[in-house]
Design goal:
The structure holds 2 protein chains of 2 kinds. By secondary structure, chain A is α/β, with parallel strands linked by helices. An 8-stranded parallel β-barrel of chain A has the order 1-2-3-4-5-6-7-10. Chain A is globular and about 50 Å long. Chain A has a single domain, classed as TIM Barrel (Alpha-Beta Barrel), CATH 3.20.20. Helix content of chain A is 36%, strand content 14%. The longest helix of chain A has 19 residues. Chain B has a domain of 108 residues. Chain B is built from 12 helices and no strands. Chain B is elongated and about 70 Å long. The chains are: A alpha/beta, B mainly alpha. Chains A and B meet through helix 1 and helix 3 of A and helix 1, helix 3, helix 6, helix 8 and helix 11 of B.
Amino acid sequence: MQQLFSDYGIGVGLRPSHYQMFSGNKPKSVNWVEVISENFLPWKGHDSFRPFHRLCKIRQEVPVALHGVSLSLGSADDLDLEYLKLLKELKNKIQPMWFSDHLCWSGVNGEILHDLYPLPYTKDVIQHVVDKIKQTQDFMGTRMLIENLSSYVDFKISEMSEWEFITEIATRADCGLLLDVNNVYVSSVNHNFDPKKYIDHIPSHRIGQIHLAGHSVEEGYLIDTHDAPVCQEVWDLYQYTLKKKGTFSSMIERDGNIPEWQVLENELLTAQKIYNDVKCPIVKNKGVSYEITTP
Amino acid sequence: MKSPLHKLQTDFSAAIRFKDPSAIEALPINETNAVSKETRLEVYGYSYWIRLEKSLRDDFFYTFEKLGDEVTPTIQQFIKETQPGHHILGDVSLAFCDFIIKTKPEYRKEAALDRAILISEFTPWIYELEKIESILLKPQQLDELSPDEIRTLWSTTLQFVEKQIVVQKMDSTEILDPEPQVLSLLEQHKEIQTFTQLLEKIAELNFSDSAASAAIAFLTANDILYFAKK
């Protein structure tokens, strides 16, 4: 089946401390960037205080993907149309590769709790989320990507696995998938499933983007902190994913402990090597210390 | 009629925000021998708390310094009494500032100052503005002007800044170097005593006036406010 989204190669989740790297001579290691949509939406009463012109400059240098954190597609509440209007305005100005948000809920009864909470995997919830994604896509005038979470709880009332749940939603809503490989790994440890089984089930043609990130280890479970280097298990799962599903726009995502650019760039080179090995195996990769294990 | 999903999410929210025992009991969450339901929920509860506290601590340097031992109870009270309806944590901080001004007016001055700094940190590009010298309020004028006159000047400054930002948006092909006269102006302002006077004057103004924030933004963008903060 034909891919729904273009493959832009290796990118990075761009954070303010690295904006300056994209002010005239972008790093060669990056083909595209992802930015957090909310960072460029206007504050109440402070329209002109957002660094929008920075984003315009970045956009002149590289393709940009918009990644949101507060659409709350799984909330029992209705969609927040005010938020969507702002997002659409931003999208129209930036002309991104695509926009994405998470398969989660972030609040109910009008609350916004600034986190990504898991859903019970039931048929009723599928219908609810599908309707909201369709509304969102109709309003925005384009197909969106939904990202899988890492989670610490799962519900007794679930009727299926997470991979069946997200696949069913993406298929019925006709949207794309932002596959966070780290999140798959974290959830696989927290809920004791085989992460490769998850990857195997995901429809390749709907994958538009891949996130790679780090996590922290607690006693008995993992926490998706996005503040550490990508671990070997996640690199291995990334390699497995590309070999099984093909190559996709892939990026390193750091939300905390943002390192110096050079440190981040080393991780980008590792991602590039794995990507190249699948995309064009004859390309020689030099100077990368990563050791690939056979999946 | 509320759906089962609504009931589950309402319980989940109560468990995270308030550790409500009946809500925790009602949640149909799987647990293992290794990790209990309470521990799993606590990951979210702790994250919610720590995210807000860290964000507020980052944004309210002066206020928290004055609050001392009252910091944690104040944040708890804020969380309890405030509907969490903001998309970004920066907006939560603005709400926290309003909360402080309303419930602890004795810290009004510090909260307003922190708020101005917070907003200013999102405007690092203002240094690019040209010919700002003739319009910006100068600290040396502060002793000569009444609060109303200062407020008027702040407003003029804000209008100017906003106008320039619009221009920047339209012409975003290059970053301008600061004009020599702007650098000269900034040099004059690097007297901490003068700057302290500036902050004191700002505190006398209406703190909801974003013009004050815009002017501080200009100073912050040129490292002056950080100098004072140290």
